[in-house]
Amino acid sequence: MKRFLLTSFALAALSGCAEPRQVISDLPSPVMHTYAVKRAPALEAPSPAAPVKRELPIGPKTIVVDPGHGGKDPGTQGVSVLAEKEFNLLLAAELSRALTRRGAKVVPTRTTDKFVTLEHRALIARRSRADLFVSIHADWIRKRHSTGATLYIARSPSSKSIRAADCIAAAFRSSGIKCNGIRRRDFRVLVEHPQPAVLIECGYMSNWADARRLNSPAYRTRLVEAITDGVATHFTR
Ligand SMILES: [Zn+2]
Fold this sequence. Notes:
Layout: H1 2-14, E1 62-67, H2 84-101, E2 105-108, H3 118-127, E3 132-139, E4 149-153, H4 159-174, E5 179-184, H5 188-191, E6 197-204, H6 208-214, H7 217-236
Parallel strand pairs: 1-2, 1-3, 3-6, 4-5
Antiparallel strand pairs: 4-6
Helix pairs in contact: 2-7, 4-7
Zinc ion is lined by residues 68-69, 75, 84, 137.
């Protein structure tokens, strides 16, 4: 019995990387029945306390958090309730708080629904001498079945940009968030300043399942924790 349980736990842990786990709060509410239901006995006594996750500190690093789009530029929307500019702002605000809690100095490119040019975003990265520039976006594609997060760095990236993207991708995978890997594209916010920079497309607003996840506060918190873990690993290596 014990061996069976251990094997089940090991298999459950291994299966985490391939597909995003369903967030419990996303599931539809169960139908309430009025008849009595005989409950299955618990297999094991509950553990006295859940293990406390150790948070890796980041230290006095300057991180520019850049919520994409804003104001007259809504970004994409697809089948999502939130427009991309709204999703980006919500995620960036939570990410900024998480990074600050771990000791980083956060410089946002916008904190309200306003239009900020790409040149100005790059200027903020340059002026703040950012140790890392993190741009937050959500994706759209005609192929409706595409899902998952995708990371972008410049075509000729610095070694620090590569390492930061590697660390965030690894953190996504270890927290069960589907990650399509790291792609190279010369987005202006990645190349118009010399600071290490990563652009994160957090998921596809063109896909129903992804849009539902991106609209869920619990899933956004999972994304934020994974990005923060990845950034912390990048700075401690
Ligand atoms: Zn975008």
